[in-house]
């Protein structure tokens, strides 16, 4: 799928992509700098999109780790499956609120998310928060890119520790929430 097709998908489905452009390399690098990849065996990405975060995760994860990428756009899923065809990268074309069904209770080391929680229905986003919190190992982290600091208060109901970072090196500038139980 060409970059122009990916951009078209971004704008056609802005309610589910929640972005006006893809995450900058600087934002991806900053987000991933908060994750401990060494020793992480089960990694989940919520909202694979164009694959910019997926690529960064794959470059950093251990060879024996498995990455599960959740994406609801069929166009993005097709592109992700082509670009990241590998036995240890599983592209799942389904809502993140169904992650427990796909992982079958397997504990997760890292959850990296760029989901547009501000645009997701309350019931669905609450399910995603709850399942993310329950599925994470006690030493695991949920790391979220977001454009509103107010989301921190939603995360606080599900995670005991939340650290926040900010970067101007993205359009629009973004927050990174680093959460654990």
TrEMBL record:
Q: Does the keyword Transferase apply?
A: yes
| UniProt xrefs under InterPro entries | Methyltransf_25 (IPR041698), SAM-dependent_MTases_sf (IPR029063)
One of the protein's GO biological processes: methylation
Q: Where is the Methyltransferase domain?
A: 43-140
Q: Does the keyword Cell division apply?
A: no
Pfam families recorded: Methyltransf_25
Kindly give the Gene3D superfamilies that the UniProt entry links to this protein. Answer: Vaccinia Virus protein VP39 (3.40.50.150)
Stretches assigned to coiled coil: none
Q: Which UniProt keywords apply?
A: Methyltransferase, Transferase
- Any one GO MF annotation of this record: methyltransferase activity
CDD domains, sorted? AdoMet_MTases
UniProt protein name: Methyltransferase type 12
Q: What is the lineage of its organism?
A: Bacteria, Pseudomonadati, Bacteroidota, Cytophagia, Cytophagales
